[in-house]
Amino acid sequence: MGFRGGYRFKKFEGSGKPVLRDLPVPELVFIPLEDGYGNFLQVSVNVNSRIRAGELIAESSEGTHGHCIPSPVNGTVIQADNVIVIKSDGSDSFEPVPGHIREPWRLDKTEILDLCRTTGCIFLLPGRLASPTDTDSVKDIIINAVFNSPLNQSWTPLMFGDHTLLSDGLRTLRALFPAAKILIAVNRRNRKHLDSPDITGHAALRVVSDRYPQEHQELLARDTVGRRLVSPEGEIDGSILVMPVTDLFQFAEVMTRGRPLIDRILLIAGPGVSNPGWYRVRLGTPFEDLRLRLFKGDYQGPWRVIRGDVMTGRGIESFDSSVSLSDSSISVIGEKTTRELFYFLRPGFAADSYPKVTVANVVTLIPKKLNSSMQGGVRPCVQCNYCDEVCPVALYPFLIWKMVEASEVADTGRLRPYDCIECGLCDYVCPSKISLLQGVRKAREEYRRRWRGDESTH
Amino acid sequence: MKALIDRFRNIVEYFDRKFEHSKYRPAWDTISGFFFSARAVTPLSGPHIRNYTDLKRYMSVVMAAVSPTVLASIYFFGWRCLAIVIMSYVLGIIIELGFAIHNNEEVTEGMFVTCILYPMILPPTIPFWMAAFGLAVGIILGKEVFGGTGKNIFNPAIVGRTFLAVTFPVEMASRWVPPFAGWPGGFAQWSHTADAVTAATPLSSFKNGAPEQLLKMLWGSTSGSMGETSAIIIIVFGILLVMTRVANWRLPLSSIGAAMVLATVMNLIDPVRFASPLYHLLGGGLLFGAFYMVTDPVSAPFSSQGKWIYGIMIGVITIAIRNLSGFPEGMMFAILFMNMFAPVIDDAVLAIRFGRGK
User: Fold this and answer.
1) Which of A324, A438, B180, B300 could cross-link to B186 by cystine, CB 3.0-4.6 Å?
2) Distance (Å, rounded) from C-alpha A8 to C-alpha A148?
């Protein structure tokens, strides 16, 4: 249940509250036609045609990744080249999934997979599923309901109350992957919410650690089924499927309730969000729209917007992009630029610190501040060992970083940089503010590059 | 107040720009960085947040943990102790700024710890020039020649002290003074007069057959180096330091534990020749060394297993030197000796854990 390393984040300001709200339908939606695997989809609507939310607007028949995209809004198509732009009329109704049935688990496996394709649901499953025979190779399905990251200490509101939807989703999964064992990984404090016959009749509950980064899929695979999800060479084990609980929820909605895949359930949180929590956002909603509706004003900022969580996500450089199915959370944190007097002597009432040297380590009630400050100058490594204490995969990040700095990348192989899961904890705890992760990443890429090179020469 | 701080920030930032392209920039950055936090933000590729503790705070915590010992040294030996601490800071900063300009790198905060630890392990009667000489040797030969903080093999404070102990054996080993007692004790004194000199330390008086009282050693009213006498203060603040995670708990535990075990065994063999474990614990530099010198992360092994080996060896060597050699005290040599082996220990641990391979 536990693992070596990791770190338990305490309450941060702007943490998501367990409430699910609908975001109003945006004026314009932008749907890129690249499917994330390098294939372009065929547009099946004309410019200026009126369209209902849920109607198909693009599809791809290309063998392995064949799938369709439904329109997220009611409105008029105003552009359809490599991006489909739809001007919405503001209404929030939608067409149900054509030909949906209440109990899809009674269908044939092939029919379920076809339903996944025509609804776009295949994106919630691994995209490499091509034929019904592929689903037989999946031996373990891990539903990821673990929430340990700084802004997500609570849990999704989806787990509250009625479990029939989740239970129907699990049934459908079981019909689609008959050979797989399904288990749900949860935090200890959330176990009671899921411990009902509706759920446990279809999947085993497994309590895992409350320390970040337990929710990383590689650690989940390691700590629940005891196998590696990603090999040292970077290949993903196709027999394990890790599915976030929000994805299961949306999968069940589409497959059993007939709600088309027109939106995405996102955690939008951070000190820069007025009402941090879970939101149902129409796919293709531009970030600019989120900024206007949800984020605090720039005069309270400046803010940094991150696609993903604050540890592993990427900051966005412009608000041009739009919400896609690959987003699962958006974090907005302060972009710190002012210099404060005698920063290192402050008691730190609201400052999370790995060594227990701030008041916040004793008095934990005050929510911790969250901003993008480096919190200090970059210094040489003093071997304080914090990075290897927290490393969840038992690496010596500072040692790998030192070798990379000394241009000895090629010799880092024995320190196993390929085990790194990029959780970012080493950077977080470092008192010398060294970007250790960049060094480890470099060593890992070098290892994989060399491995591929070796393979091609044989 | 806020306006005043803003005003001050503007002045500092004016000089920031002024020195931007000058060779004195690292030196100025050190001063500017002392007053104001860094402006840098995390890269957009993430992770986007960092924990609050930077190296300044990290080292300040060590300084805070040592400062009660400095107060104790003033109480027992007079204000001259503080004067030596201040002198070592002034000299240390001058040397470090010089190297900062020469290497074009900011001063690393580790030196602030060295400059407070170093005087604490010197005898209270040390002449100023000698203390200064030892510090310069410690910083330059113990740290800077290896490439500065993080690259040094030896603990610079120990290097400085060892250099003095070998070069000036009389001043370093035989000019002890008795501590002041009562209230205000040393707080009303500058230092002892020259004729008070010659009182032996607890460890040497045991060898001469006149052991000290344990209670006096716990409180600290014995002769000895400035900071090593008050065992109770070192224990309390040393444990606090370990609890903050700034000092790794394995190091003091293993070194003190091993010393206690060996001292007990030897004491059982021959109680007349070998002092009891408690006497070894409270007398001399074992406690101060274990909590503040052994825990120096740079010169200790980085692996947990290596830390155990390192600590145990220090404890064993200390007691072996104290009991079996002509020297009354062995902590300094034990640390210096094991500093040398730390990289080898780490290498062995890595080889066992990760294999010798590519």
Assistant:
1) B180
2) 7
- Residues B40-55 pLDDT 10s: 899 998 799 999 999 9
Residue type, A272: G
Return the residue matching tokens 């297993």.
Answer: B305
Q: Based on DSSP, count helices (H) and strands (E) in chain B, helices before strands.
A: 16, 0
Structure confidence by residue, pLDDT tens digits, A135-159: 888 899 999 999 999 998 766 666 6
Instruction: Characterize the bridge pairing of strands A140-145 and A83-88.
Output: unpaired
Neighbouring C-alpha atoms within 13 Å toward the C-beta of B76: 30
In this structure, the strands spanning A56-60 and A67-70 are antiparallel
* Nearest of A420, A348, A414, A368 to residue A390 by alpha carbon: A420
Closest CA to B340 of B213, B104, B153: B153
Pick from B54, B60, B358: which is nearest to A414 by CB? B358
Burial of B66 (0-12, 13-18, 19+ CB in 10 A): buried
ipTM, two decimals: 0.91
Neighbours of A207 (CB within 10 A): 15
Q: In B, which residues are within 8 Å of A355 by CB distance?
A: 53, 58, 61, 244-246
Say yes or no: B216 contacts chain A, CB-CB below 8 A: no
Sign, Cα dihedral of A261, A148, A220, A198: negative
Nearest C-alpha in B relative to A375: B52
- Substitution target in A9, A379, A391 with the highest count of B β-carbons within 10 Å is A379
Of B5, B46, B61, the CB nearest to A314: B46
With tokens 């209670």, the residue in question is: B215
Instruction: Please name each of the domains of chain B with its CATH number.
Output: 54-354 (1.10.3430)
Contact A95, A52 (CB under 8 A): yes
pTM of the shown model: 0.91
Residues of A within 8 A of B33 (CB-CB) are 377
Q: A341, A412, A426: best mutation site toward chain B, by most B Cβ within 10 Å?
A: A341
